[in-house]
């Protein structure tokens, strides 16, 4: 299974049983967990992200594929940790205070995990203080989502709080959601903006200067 094509197909199809079996088979063949992660699981989710971005598949297919990818990741994660393999970066993500929408945020979260990021998901209605605490704990990126215009000021307050605490130089911020624009991101001093979930991982790599 050196080309990992079957594993990628199983991730894409959301075949949890198939993913688990192929990951176990690869480990038994002494293929490294890092290779399985990069060439199988992440590559499979990259295919999902590309199709989603081009409107060739939709939210249900993305969620199913992400669950399959996670099933494979759960098997190899202890091996990766013990081998000292570091995640691409650490991201704290949440829908901001005053907003209870989470489908878009959930897809971004899964896409980031699928791209090799360590993700802390705060869920919905996330207060400013929680994001600030995550910055103090050493996350590389704070990702904020808003689906209603009334919650957008919470993004601005979060960035202002990071400046006030002297943390803004240590953590990057990225925002997204239906009412969010690049203009708004520029106005509040966010480091990045992404129009859709499929672009989030690449945008974060861009703002962190990760090749």
Automatic annotation (TrEMBL):
GO cellular component assignments: cytosol
B12-binding N-terminal domain residues: 1-88
Keywords per UniProt: Cobalt, Metal-binding
Family matches, as InterPro entries: Cbl-bd_cap, Cobalamin-bd, Cobalamin-bd_sf, Met_Synthase/Corrinoid, Meth_synthase_dom
Pfam families: B12-binding, B12-binding_2
B12-binding domain ranges (all copies): 88-211
Database matches in Gene3D superfamilies: Cobalamin-binding domain, Methionine synthase domain
Keyword Secreted: no
Biological-process GO terms, alphabetical: homocysteine metabolic process; tetrahydrofolate metabolic process
Highest taxon of the lineage: Bacteria
UniProt KW Metal-binding keyword: yes
GO molecular function, one term: metal ion binding
PANTHER family linked to this entry: METHIONINE SYNTHASE
Family: Belongs to the methylamine corrinoid protein family.
Protein name: Cobalamin-binding protein
């Amino acid at each position: 299974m050196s080309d990992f094509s079957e594993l990628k197909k199983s991730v894409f199809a959301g075949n949890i049983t198939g993913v688990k079996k192929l990951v176990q088979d690869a480990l038994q063949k002494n293929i490294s967990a890092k290779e399985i992660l990069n060439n199988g699981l992440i590559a499979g989710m990259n295919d999902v992200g590309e199709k989603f971005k081009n409107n060739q598949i939709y939210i249900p297919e993305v969620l199913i594929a992400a669950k399959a990818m996670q099933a494979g990741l759960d098997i190899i994660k202890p091996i990766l940790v013990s081998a000292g393999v570091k995640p691409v970066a650490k991201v704290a993500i949440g829908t901001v205070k005053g907003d209870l929408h989470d489908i878009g945020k959930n897809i971004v979260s899964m896409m980031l995990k699928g791209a090799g990021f360590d993700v802390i998901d705060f869920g919905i209605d996330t207060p400013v203080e929680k994001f600030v605490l995550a910055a103090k704990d050493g996350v590389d990126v704070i990702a904020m989502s808003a689906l209603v215009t009334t919650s957008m000021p919470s993004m601005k307050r979060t960035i202002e709080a990071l400046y006030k605490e002297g943390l803004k130089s240590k953590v990057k911020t990225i925002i997204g959601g239906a009412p969010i624009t690049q203009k708004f991101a520029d106005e509040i001093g966010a480091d990045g903006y992404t129009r859709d979930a499929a672009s989030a991982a690449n945008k974060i790599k861009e703002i962190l200067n990760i090749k």
